[in-house]
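A reminder from the course coordinator: this example appears on the midterm review sheet, so study it carefully.

Given structure:
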């Protein structure tokens, strides 16, 4: 699989595995410039809401109707939505600052 372009330094350094992890709410880092990224949070939240609806609705319907067609529709929908999550744009995050302990 080809590398994706880093939005910060515009070099192809984001791997396929990193992009998949970004779709699971995990921060990723550019190996060239060290910038921290995640998938667009609002779009990712909407996609996960639709995945949850897909699993609950078609899972319920497959049990209620005793039909394998609903289970297959659930799996196909889930895989299709996971495919779309891969193409969500990356958003640059601020650098993490260390937590200071108070000296009270």
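Designed residues:
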């Amino acid at each position: 699989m080809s590398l994706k372009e880093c939005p910060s330094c515009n070099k192809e350094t984001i791997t396929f595995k990193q992009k998949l992890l970004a779709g699971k709410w995990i921060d990723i880092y550019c190996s060239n410039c060290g910038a921290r990224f995640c998938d667009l949070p609002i779009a990712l939240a909407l996609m996960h809401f639709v995945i949850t609806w897909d699993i609950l609705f078609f899972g319920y319907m497959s049990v209620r109707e005793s039909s394998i067609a609903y289970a297959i529709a659930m799996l196909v929908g889930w895989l299709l939505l996971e495919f779309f999550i891969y193409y969500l744009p990356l958003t640059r995050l601020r650098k993490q600052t260390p937590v200071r302990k108070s000296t009270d």
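The chain has a mean pLDDT of 88. Strands lie at 4-5, 12-14, 28-29, 36-39, 90-93.
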